Amino acid sequence: MNKSDFDWKPMALVPLLALIVFPLIGSPSTWLTLTVAGLAMGLIIFVIASGLTLVFGLMDVLNFGHGVFIALGAFVATSVLGGMGDWTGSASLWRNLVAVVPAMLVAMAVAGAVGLAFERFIVRPVYGQHLKQILITMGGMIIGEELIKVVWGPQQIPLPLPEGMRGSILIGDAAIEKYRLIAVVVGLAVFAALAWTLGRTKIGLLIRAGVQDREMVESLGYRIRRLFVGVFVVGSALAGLGGVMWGLYQQTVVPQMGAQVNILIFIVIIIGGLGSTTGALIGALMVGLMANYTGFLAPKVALFSNIALMAAVLLWRPQGVYPVANR
Amino acid sequence: MLNRLLSNDFPRSRVLAVVLVVLMLALAFTPFIFPGVKALNVAAKVLVFVVLVASFDLLLGYTGIVSFAHTMFFGIGAYGIAIATTRLGPTWEALLVGLVGGLGVSFVLALVIGLFSLRVRAIFFAMITLAVASAFLTLASQLSELTGGEDGLTFKVPELLSPSFEFMDAPFLGVTIDGRLLCYYLLFVLALGLLLTLLRIVNSPFGRVLQAIRENEFRAEAIGYRVVVYRTISSILSALFACVAGAMLALWLRYNGPDTSLSFEIMMDVLLIVVIGGMGTMYGAAIGAALFMVAQSYLQDLLRLGSEAASAVPWLSALLSPDRWLLWLGVLFVLSVYYFPTGVVGRLRAQALAAPKKEGGK
Amino acid sequence: MSAARPPEGARHRSPQGEGSPVSANLLELRGVHTHIGAYHILHGVDLQVPRGQVSLLLGRNGAGKTTTLRTIMGLWRASQGTLSFDGRDITALATPQIAGLNIAYVPENMGIFSDLTVQENMLLAARGAARASQMDTQRLAWIFSLFPAVEKFWNHPAGKLSGGQKQMLAVARAIVEPRELLIVDEPSKGLAPAIINNMIDAFSQLKASGVTILLVEQNIHFAKRVGDSVAVMDNGRVVHAGSMQALSADPQLQHALLGLAI
């Protein structure tokens, strides 16, 4: 078995960043807390970004409106969790999960359904026309945001963590929030599921091939348009899941949250390379870590630090860390 | 002479020409035709946006560059005036300093962004400008000592332009001639002049090269035009005009804050106007801005009526609420991109071409 | 030189009506025009590809050969004219549907997915297999005998293969399952002479098992060794069609059509 020499350099960036920052932070316990927070945030962002990068890689579609699914997922969660007070009020983690897991599933279903409509009515008519895609998907996001305001109202809504997920665990001197650990677990689970699907199933094979050379996949007899709709819907559902997780992370949701997280996601997939899930993971982890480290060290420059990170990566590799071949 | 004024870029459609003339006259005589503060405010906004959108059209419609950082330059122009008059007092010198300062910063930033677009693909570039604009907005909110933070800066303008200055004692044609009116006409002259200048630019040899690059960059490079240079110059010019538009806005409002000039909504408004008006036409900016501002101001009233009429059906009433005007604008936007890809101007011109010639043969 | 034949598997035969004659031509183009944007590339192409034979499409660069192949596969839509396969009109079909009729296409750039392994490339082409284990092992053995490189680099990323090896993989992929019609754009491009023999061997064996083959070629020597019938294109039209034998025997005609002698 002789796999290619895998390009490991980008993977080293994440531990590298964590190590570089260590002397700046000083205390190991603070470093640990920040790193876990960063990884958690990064994995949530990854969940959201993975769908977007696949959609672009596979069908060359720029969805500037991906944020609408994030907001939708978060708001749906507020409704579901709002109605399950006795489950979320309990201090038992398992009882909390009985509320949270369905909230996630419902959010994913709603986001996926809206994604189906979004693809059909907003995206499909403008295949192949990048400028129109940018304009229309932004228009779609605005419409979505306004519709959310119609249904849930324009003000921010709290999304408190269930009782059993609050608080921290102590590891040595470091206080690590329970929810952050849960987010890491969920994020890793999503990554594992994506990696397995992409690497071990025929559909995953089709997606990976389609990202490289769509025409050839069609010439081999596969209706790649249908596959695309599927990927778009799954991507939207994942964004919805990410929205729930993000909402719980911030403990509050606003209709504009889609637009806000959009920027971060774009930075992530630019760093990662359009079309690469592994790249998106690396980008997301770095962005998450960066946001938390700078939040501690120099809060005023938080957003700039991510842009600086993106600029630095682009100077090294103008197409992102894992550019997809044949493009 | 009309030839030279319009740089040979005629409306090419009788209907369009009429509409443009009517628009210009309406704007020129707004204080007299449409009495009241609100109408004047709407007209002033139209003037500002004509310049802002026309400068964006230079970048998008003529050069083919998608950039979301345009409002950044708008904001720089507005803050330039605001900060200068706050620091240096309401004098003409302060205005000059503010304007020149704003132009300088815009120049440098546009240069950097233009050169950076070298390294990356167009899609990346669009996303990056989005991120940069967002960062700038945050910056403006955070540097509160300089920019007044979230609250913004309220300032005075030179006496000549302020409302308290009475030019003539008795009202003329029913309208008080005060500094506000003067300010309005200053904006009018500026808007007209800048629009004509932009027409001159896009119809010059430089403008033609831009269009060639937009159509087929590879070929343009092969013929010998250094695409990078042209794009960068176009970015800089576009930024400079946007900066002046920002200065105009600040001058009129005598206030500037992050939401006034840097918000994402403004970027969307610009996009909407340029699409509805017609990309790559310049005139589209004028017509689109007028249509948009009027709609924005009066649409809300219309929606209010509709919402009250539908109060029996709660969800319909909520959809028609005047606060949700952006929803309908968004729908209009999406529909325009599909069915109206060439915008109002494009449509009118196409109709003019398709209409049979009345006299003369083929 | 192996004398193996492809394994007898079930081969798809499209249903023919009772008593209707099986046409001699598997693929037929009539008056096909193709526009690419503003450019009018094919100016009324008439092409017959006889069943069970190896047909060659020759011509100078820019004559429209690749465009013809792409139009057949539906990658470009014919603006005029008809294309029929096995008696069935395929002019308006989408590319996946055309491929689904068991037409395999190997484009000029080979269409290899470089990030995927050789095995994954083959699996992708095997529409009937959901997993590698479900691919026809007998057939694979036959393919390995024709193209040893495919077996040697089975688990390697296809991007690591040399140009010639990629070419072999591309053809191997096209025949991983039984096909009716094999369309290959420049099969001998970049191949060392020794490997060309493998390619010719493969085509002979495929032809022997009843597969119809349409090749576009620049290498006239290769064309002469494999071809049964030949069509020559110039300026978006077929200007000569006939048997390869007849063309080989007529140097003057060769010179007139192709500017050189075979």
Description:
The complex is a heterotrimer of chains A (327), B (362) and C (262). Chain A is mainly alpha-helical and 327 residues long. Chain A has helices spanning 9-25, 28-59, 67-82, 85-88, 93-123, 130-152, 178-200, 202-212, 214-219, 224-250, 257-272, 277-297, 302-316; strands spanning 157-158, 168-171, 174-177, 252-253. A two-stranded antiparallel sheet of chain A has the order 1-4. Chain B is mainly α and 362 residues long. Chain B has a two-stranded antiparallel ribbon. Chain C has a domain at 106-178. Chain C is built from 10 helices and 10 strands. The longest helix of chain C is centred in the last third of the chain and has 16 residues, at 193-208. The chains are: A mainly alpha (327), B mainly alpha (362), C alpha/beta (262). Chains in contact: A-B, A-C. The A-C interface holds A 1-4, 202, 205-206, 208-209, 212-213, 215-224, 324-326 and C 73, 75, 94-96, 99-100, 105, 107, 111, 113-116, 120, 123-125, 127, 130-131, 155-157, 159-160.
Comma- or semicolon-separated keywords:
heterotrimer, A: 327 residues, mainly alpha, ABC transporter involved in vitamin B12 uptake, BtuC, two-stranded antiparallel ribbon, globular, C: alpha/beta
Please give the CATH class of chain B.
Mainly Alpha
The neighbouring-strand order within the major sheet of chain B is: 1-2
Task: Bin the helical content of chain A.
Answer: over 70%
Stretches with pLDDT under 50, minimum 5 residues of chain A = none
Low-confidence spans of chain B: 358-362
Proportion of helical residues of chain B? over 70%
Show the helix and strand layout.
The complex is a heterotrimer of chains A (327), B (362) and C (262).
Chain A: H1 9-25, H2 28-59, H3 67-82, H4 85-88, H5 93-123, H6 130-152, E1 157-158, E2 168-171, E3 174-177, H7 178-200, H8 202-212, H9 214-219, H10 224-250, E4 252-253, H11 257-272, H12 277-297, H13 302-316
Antiparallel strand pairs in A: 1-4, 2-3
Helix pairs in contact in A: 1-2, 1-12, 2-7, 2-8, 2-10, 2-11, 2-12, 3-5, 3-6, 3-10, 3-11, 5-10, 7-8, 11-12, 11-13, 12-13
Chain B: H1 2-5, H2 14-28, H3 30-33, H4 37-62, H5 70-88, H6 92-119, H7 122-142, H8 144-147, E1 153-154, H9 179-202, H10 205-215, H11 217-223, H12 227-253, E2 255-256, H13 258-261, H14 264-277, H15 283-309, H16 314-319, H17 325-339, H18 343-354
Antiparallel strand pairs in B: 1-2
Helix pairs in contact in B: 4-9, 4-12, 4-14, 4-15, 5-6, 5-12, 6-12, 9-12, 10-11, 10-12, 14-15, 14-18, 15-18
Chain C: E1 25-36, E2 39-50, E3 54-59, H1 65-72, E4 78-85, E5 88-89, H2 95-100, E6 103-106, H3 118-125, H4 137-146, H5 148-152, H6 163-174, E7 181-185, H7 193-208, E8 212-216, H8 220-226, E9 229-234, E10 237-243, H9 244-248, H10 251-258
